[in-house]
Design a protein that fits this description.
Length: about 140
């Protein structure tokens, strides 16, 4: 009987692990498209992280490129860190995640050096344009 309670608890934890990032993706999206579907897919595939944490991070790369993959990527990178606590491999996986989020912005927008630095620092430069546009 205890194994049944443990299995239910484990299923509840996995449902929350996949559900909370999925809700974050649903709250953050503006229009249905690639970003929404890749973010939801990365969230719902998070239980893979228990068996293959590297594959879980790779499954989050398209969602990061779409812009809504940070919630599932954080969970996947945390699981990878628990499975493989060495510094250099983790640093390379974090760099893959960060580059997959930043490179699409740099490729599809023509930005100056200052805007690139702000983009890499995770500041949304479009909010400044909206604010300046309203003042004029």
């Amino acid at each position: 009987m205890r194994w049944l309670i443990r299995e239910r608890r484990r299923l509840a934890v996995e449902a929350m692990t996949a559900g909370v990032p999925a809700v974050a993706v649903l709250f953050a999206y503006q229009e249905p498209g690639f970003a929404l579907w890749s973010g939801l897919a990365a969230s719902l595939l998070l239980p893979v992280r228990l068996r293959w944490p590297r594959i879980a991070v790779l499954l989050c790369v398209p969602a990061l490129a779409g812009g809504l993959g940070w919630a599932p990527a954080i969970v996947a990178l945390f699981s990878l860190g628990r499975a493989q606590p060495r510094f250099w491999p983790l640093t390379s996986w974090c760099a893959v995640a960060a580059l997959s989020a930043v490179l699409p912005v740099l490729v599809f927008q023509s930005l100056g050096v200052g805007a690139i630095v702000l983009t890499i620092s995770f500041v949304d430069d479009r909010s400044e344009e909206r604010r300046v546009g309203k003042e004029c």
